[in-house]
Structure formats: C-alpha cells, structure tokens
Amino acid sequence: MKLLFDENLSPDLVGLVRDEYPGSTHVRDLGLRGAPDGQIWDHARDNGFVIVSKDDDFRQRSLLEGAPPKVVWLQVGNAGTAPIAGLLREQARRLRRFEGEEEAALLIVSLVRRAV
C-alpha cells in the first residue's frame, strides 16, 4: 500500500512509516507542492496511491467522484507528526482492509485523546 501525503502533513511522515507503507511519498517529493487538488488526485489515481490528508477538499472529492484513488481523511486536529505516524501504524490493518474493499472510497481515521 502506497500512501501519498498531502502538503498539509509533514514530509517526515514518509520516513516514519516507510516500513509499514513502502513506496509512500509526499507531494513535495513529487514536485506537486502547491499543485491544484485535481492534479494531485490524478497523480494518485494514475500511480496507485492512496491519498492521506487532513484537507476537507479531498474528503469531498472522494464522496463526489469515488475511487480511485482512495482517500484516508485524518481527523487529528493539530496533532504533531509523531502521533500521526503512530496512528497510521496502529491502523495499518484497517487501512489495508480499506484498500482491498473495491467499493470503498473514503476512510476516516481519528486520533482519540484519552483523558488523564
């Protein structure tokens, strides 16, 4: 499973989850930083990526157009890079199941904060 991280997420995520999601990359590394969402969408679709974003635009596009590409929409607030990487690792089995579900286009993944 290859993830394409949107520019609203840290490029450091690529290295932090590389062993779990080989072949993943960040839009910056593809020369797509600042590119319109449609261009990122097309690149993901044409190259077998699952888009990972906190951007509501990709969530909406997924609902309107369906897959491919599939979209993992992160509801993580202002969480830092390490908690997001941890969440993606923790949810790896769920993401793989989602990738294999032919009709599924959008997966919402939330970071649950526990009260101390």
Keywords for this entry:
about 120 residues; alpha/beta; five-stranded parallel β-sheet; 5 helices; about 20% strand
* CA-based gyration radius: 13 Å
Helix content: 25-40%
- The total tally of domains equals 1
What does the average pLDDT come to? 93
Helices and strands: which structural class?
alpha/beta
Enumerate the strands of the largest sheet in spatial order, edge to edge or round the barrel.
Answer: 2-1-3-4-5
How much beta, percentage-wise? 15-25%
Order of helices and strands: EHEHEHEHHE
Number of strands: 5
Helical stretch count?
A: 5
* Low-confidence regions: none
- Biggest β-sheet strands, sense, barrel: 5 strands, parallel
Summarize this structure briefly.
With 116 residues, the chain is α/β, with parallel strands linked by helices.
Description:
The chain has 116 residues and is an alpha/beta fold. It has one domain (2-110). It has five helices and five strands. The protein has a five-stranded parallel beta sheet, with helices on both faces. Strand 1 (2-5), helix 1 (12-16) and strand 2 (25-26) form a beta-alpha-beta unit. The chain is globular and about 30 Å long. 31% of the residues are buried.
